[in-house]
Amino acid sequence: MNKDVMNGLLGNLNEVSIDQLAKEFGEYLMENESITIGYKLVRDVFIFTDKHLLFFDKQGATGTKMRVKSINLESVISVTAETAGFGMDDSEISITYITTLNLRANNISTESIKLEFPKKYSIQPLYKTLQQLAYDNFVSINKL
Fold first, then answer.
1. Per DSSP, which regions of 1-144 are E strands?
2. How many alpha carbons fall within 13 Å on the CB side of residue 98?
3. If you average pLDDT over residues 110-136, what whole number do you get?
4. Distance of CA 16 to the CA centre of its chain
5. Looking at residue 54, what DSSP letter applies?
6. What is the rounded distance in angstroms from the CA atom of residue 13 to the CA atom of residue 48?
7. pLDDT per position as a tens digit, 75-94
8. Which residues pair with 55 in a beta bridge?
9. Domain Bacterial Pleckstrin homology, which positions (predicted)?
10. What integer pLDDT is reported at residue 88 of this predicted model?
11. Is-contact 13 40, C-beta < 8 A?
């Protein structure tokens, strides 16, 4: 069985080329927005751009119906990572973001999304990038 298919069946994201992502999902990008990196899980896709985190959830038997979720980079406030252990463990990154329209509101709402990666995929560079983003957002939101 193909390694990418096997990882997909196990719930793992696999990195996809920027050219392939731009060809398939470029129409969802804003003007002057560019893809930094992207991952695919069987039919679902996660794309990191210079402005957003985009999640494409293909639905139905044919995958023609699709839900697109966009998270503004400025709303990312926390990131956690769990590296793979011995055995069947996979690596995970959880991203917490503000869903309240005003990031500086007194009562903010947050949501989290979890991404799973194959055991052998190094999540540290992506974690480092997301952690820097979360830290910069923390400083900006709190005017530190």
1. 14-16, 35-41, 44-49, 52-59, 65-72, 76-82, 91-98, 110-117
2. 18
3. 88
4. 13
5. E
6. 13
7. 999 999 998 777 667 788 99
8. 46, 69
9. 6-133
10. 64
11. yes
pLDDT(2) > 60: no
Residue 127 has pLDDT above 50, yes or no: yes
Contact 82, 114 (CB under 8 A): no
Residues 6+ apart with CB under 8 A from 60: none
The Cα–Cα gap between 39 and 55 comes to 10
Span 3-141 CATH architecture: Roll (2.30)
User: In the structure encoding, which two tokens stand for residue 118, read together?
Assistant: 């194959």
CB contact set of 78 (below 8 Å; sequence gap of 6+): 95, 96, 134
Q: What is the pTM of this model?
A: 0.78
Torsion of Cα atoms, 142 then 100 then 12 then 85, to 10°: 40
Annotated domain spans of the chain = 3-141
